Amino acid sequence: MKEINVESYVRRGNGLILVEDLDPEEREAFACWLKETYLNELFRGKGRVVLKKEKP
């Protein structure tokens, strides 16, 4: 079986950056955005998911 390699990129400014190259805070923010977007699409018309921001 042939191996499949996948790379994920995000847009920053005018360019694309590999998700693996994001710093830990940026990766966490990206993961939270993905989860929020996914859950809001899953529950569209039934409810809304909003992330709770932690105070420093």
Overall description:
The protein is of the alpha+beta class and 56 residues long. Strands 1-2 form a two-stranded antiparallel ribbon. β1 and β2 form a beta hairpin. The longest helix is centred in the middle third of the chain and has 19 residues. The radius of gyration is 15 Å and the shape is extended.
Topology (elements, then pairings):
Blueprint: E1 9-12, E2 15-18, H1 24-42
Give the strand line-up of the largest sheet. Answer: 1-2
Q: Detail the poorly predicted runs.
A: none
Gross morphology is: extended
- The fraction of residues assigned to DSSP E strands is 5-15%
Report the sheet with the most strands, covering strand number, pairing sense and barrel closure. 2 strands, antiparallel
How far from one another are the termini? 48 Å
User: What portion of residues is helical?
Assistant: 25-40%
Over the alpha carbons, how many angstroms does the gyration radius reach? 15 Å
How many helix segments? 1
Give the SSE string: EEH
Number of strand segments: 2
